[in-house]
C-alpha cells in the first residue's frame, strides 16, 4: 500500500530532512582517521536531539543505533560500533527508508522498463531513491547482524540518496533543502 501524505505531513518531513542534512554537515566536521563509527553515532544522536528531534532509526525493528554507518564494502544499513575509520575510507550515513529496485533495474538494464506498469505517481507520495553502484561482482550479502548489506569483491562503489515528494507543482526534493 502506498500512503499519500498531507501537506502538514510533508511539512514535517521537510523539517526532519533539514535535521538529517544538518546531521550530515555536523558529522563531516568530526570524520577523521581513528574515529569509530560508534563515536559518530553518539555524536549524531546528540546533534539530532539538540535539534528537538528523535533519531528514527534507533529501535526500528531492533536497529541499535541512531544512524547507519556503512564503510567501504558496506552498501547500506551498517551498524555503528568499534570500527575505526582509516584515511581513504568511504563512509555513508544512511536514512531509514530505501527504494533502490527501480534504480537498480535501470543501471543494470537501462531503458528496459515496461511502460505503463506499476503505480502512478500521485500528489503526496514520497520516495526515498537510493542509488548504489559498484564495480566488481554484482553479488551482495548480509552480515550476521542481518542488516548490513556488503558487496563481494568490490573495486569501487558510489551511493547517493534523495528524498522526493510528489506535489501539485511537481517534485520537491527534500534533500536539496539545506545542501
From TrEMBL:
Gene Ontology molecular-function annotations: initiator methionyl aminopeptidase activity; metalloaminopeptidase activity
EC number(s) reported in the record: 3.4.11.18
Key words of the record: Aminopeptidase, Hydrolase, Protease
A Pfam family matched in the record: Peptidase_M24
GO cellular component terms, A-Z: cytosol
Gene3D superfamilies per the UniProt record, alphabetical: Creatinase/methionine aminopeptidase superfamily
Domain Peptidase M24: 13-91
Name of the protein described by the UniProt record: Methionine aminopeptidase
Organism: Paenibacillus terrae (strain HPL-003)
Amino acid at each position: 500500500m502506498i500512503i499519500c501524505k498531507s501537506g502538514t505531513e510533508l511539512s514535517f518531513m521537510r523539517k526532519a530532512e533539514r535535521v538529517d542534512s544538518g546531521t550530515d554537515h555536523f558529522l563531516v566536521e568530526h570524520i577523521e582517521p581513528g574515529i569509530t563509527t560508534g563515536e559518530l553515532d553518539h555524536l549524531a544522536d546528540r546533534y539530532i536531539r539538540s535539534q528537538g528531534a528523535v533519531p528514527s532509526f534507533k529501535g526500528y525493528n531492533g536497529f541499535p543505533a541512531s544512524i547507519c554507518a556503512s564503510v567501504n564494502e558496506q552498501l547500506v544499513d551498517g551498524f555503528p560500533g568499534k570500527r575505526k575509520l582509516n584515511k581513504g575510507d568511504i563512509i555513508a550515513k544512511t536514512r531509514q527508508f530505501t527504494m533502490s529496485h527501480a534504480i537498480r533495474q535501470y543501471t543494470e538494464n537501462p531503458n528496459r522498463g515496461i511502460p505503463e506498469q506499476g503505480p502512478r505517481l500521485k500528489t503526496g507520495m514520497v520516495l526515498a531513491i537510493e542509488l548504489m553502484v559498484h564495480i566488481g561482482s554484482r553479488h551482495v550479502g548480509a552480515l550476521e547482524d542481518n542488516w548490513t548489506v556488503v558487496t563481494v569483491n568490490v573495486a569501487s562503489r558510489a551511493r547517493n540518496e534523495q528524498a522526493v515528494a510528489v506535489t501539485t507543482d511537481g517534485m520537491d526534493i527534500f534533500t536539496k533543502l539545506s545542501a
